[in-house]
Amino acid sequence: MSANLLLVSHKLCPYVQRVAIVLAEKKIAYERRNIDLSAKPDWFLHLSPLGKTPVLLVNQQPIFESAVICEYLEETAFPPLHPENALLRARHRAWMEFGSALLNDIAGFYNAQSIEKLETQRERIRSKFVQLEEALGEGPYFAGESFCMVDAVFGPVFRYFDLFDEIQVFGFFINLPKLQNWRRALEQRPSVQNAVSPAYISDLRSFLQSRNSELSRRMSTVNT
Q1: Catalytic annotation, residues
Q2: Most exposed: 37, 91, 171, 218, by fewest CB within 10 Å?
Q3: 180-217 b/e with 16+ CB inside 10 Å = b?
C-alpha cells in the first residue's frame, strides 16, 4: 500500500487495537495519534460523525468504524487475513461480530453496579467462551496455523482478562483448553503485544477503578 496513513485512536479502545494489529500484520507504516474522548477536539468530530475511535486517514480521507477499516486494509494490502472461500469468509466475519458482542458483555461486567449484575455478566461471558471453545480447532489460532482477521478481533478481547485475573478468580477459562491455548498464542503475537503502549495495564487499572462499580470495589479490597 502506498498511502499516507494516520490512525486516530484512544489508548484503551479495543477497536483501535484490532486495526493496529491488522496494520502490523500487513506491515503497513502509519502514524498513530491518541485523543481524549472526554474532550474531543473539533477536528476529530469533523472526521468521525459518530465521535468514536478509530478513524483511519488515508491520504487525508477519513474512514471510520473498525470493521470497515479492517475490510479496507484487507482489500488493499497483503497478506490476506480472510479465507479465500466465500462461505468460510462469511463465517469468519460472523465470529468477528461475535467478538464485538463479547466486548459489550465485558463492558457490562466492569460497569456492573451490584454483585448480582456482575455475576449475570460473568455468566454471559462464560457462556460465549463455551461457544468459542466448541468452534475452535487444533489451533494455535482461530483457523489453525495461520493468523486471521478473527484473531485480530480477539487479541484485544482477551487482554482484559490479564487484569481481571489479578482481581479475583472468576473461572472464565475453566475446562476450556482450546480457548486457553488460543489466548496464550495471541498474547505472544508481536502484533497483539504492540497494539497497546507499555502503560496499557496501568491505564486500564485506573479506568476500571474509576467506574464506581462492583468490580472497582473489589479492586480496592485487593489493593488494600
Answers
A1: 13
A2: 171
A3: bebbebbeebebbbebbeeebeeebbeebeebebbbbe
* CA–CA dist 17, 144 (Å, integer): 22
In the sheet with 55-58, reading across from the earlier edge strand, the strands are 31-34, 5-9, 55-58, 61-64
List phi, psi (to 5°) of 221.
Answer: -65, -40
Residues in the chain: 224
Q: Which residue do the cell numbers 489479578 mark? A: 166
Residue in the structure block whose three cell numbers are 488494600: 224
Which residues pair with residue 63 across a beta bridge? 56
Q: Please give the pLDDT value at position 221.
A: 85
Ordered structural domains, the chain, with CATH = 5-76 (3.40.30.10), 86-223 (1.20.1050.10)
- Determine how many CB atoms are found less than 10 A away from the CB of residue 19: 30
Helix axes 115-135, 214-223, angle to 10 degrees: 100
